[in-house]
Structure prediction request, 388 residues.
Amino acid sequence: MPSHDYAPTRDDRFAFGVWCLQNRGRDPFGDVTRREFPALECIKGLAQRNCYGFEFHDNDIIPFGASATLRDQIVSDIKKLMADTGIKATMATTNTFYHPVFKDGAFTSSDPAVRLFATQKVMRCIDLAAEFGTEIFVFWGGREGVEVDASKDPISAAGWFRDSLNFLCEYVRSQGYKIKFSIEPKPNEPRGDLFLPTVGSVLAFIQTLAHPGMVGINPETAHIKMAGLNPYHEFAQALDAGKLLDVHLNGQKPLRFDQDLTFGSDDIKEAFYTVKLLLDHKYQGTIGFDAHPYRTESDPWDFVDRSMRTYLILREKARRFAECKEIQDILKELHGAHAELAGYAKSFSKEAAAKLKSMDLNPEALVSRKLPYERLDQLVTEILLGVI
Ligand code: GLT
Ligand code: MN
Prediction:
């Protein structure tokens, strides 16, 4: 029997994108299948389900081109709802992909006027984020890419992107906002190729910015699998670099169109390792889900409930992994080999190098070590299948 009923609490720090709930099931081949939920209804529903926060694009809550009066009215309604329910606006981002003005990129458009329009839109969204007390501000470059490589030099495009981010970092600093930027990588779709496709590319890019300390990464399971990579390893790389500011958990079959499936629905073992990673390494950010309900659903709430429930079940499985004596004995054995040599390579000296060169490490003997990975993987499988 489970030790609890997997009911989410605010302490679990779950958050959902308002856009996930507003998704109406439209795809390139078919029209909408359900109504659009107004932002207030989405946020209220999340609060009722004990979500810690909501994530939003400017245009999820404020229509493109809305008057200042309408904007202020919407902001005050949302602030009241936040105060009444305690839900927080945990992540904000700008829609720089929907309007046709962004058809050839926002920050990487070859037209400086479009780049400035994008920068202006982001500054307004940053102000909005600050009003809601949001501290993580995401950049997903949905239109930052190409179909025709002859159209722009990727190094110039990187430069335009860098200039815009540097300008916006200065804007945050000049306003005294407590906001960090987080870049969300994706390999393709809606563009043929997107710039900054993976965690590694974002990490390298961040180091070229004027304020790398203000910028981190928001990796998403589906985007990683679209590139055929391992989400567990990609999330780990961001964590190792101290740059995992936010996560977008969902599901995706590898190397396909962006499916945005519910977390854990396609590959439970992979989802398990992701949850275990966040737990083992005491990830401090919110647990953001970015998927959309199947096109066949009539409302988004089953998707919300089961995302959180699956996460909590997997968290309990991760604890079971830590408590499983057989697993822990195997790991102890695996990681206890030649303990006297562990850390040798950590401190370099000429003497240590000379000694290492002449050390007899006997590869033949090292080969004979037993690595019971079949058994180890079976134990994980059985934990996930509920046998252990
Ligand atoms: C869009 C995309 C997501 C991004 C969102 C942030 S919007 O739905 O598919 O992965 O996180 O702009
Ligand atoms: Mn996302």
User: Anything to note?
Assistant: The CA atoms of residues 182 and 217 lie 5 Å apart.
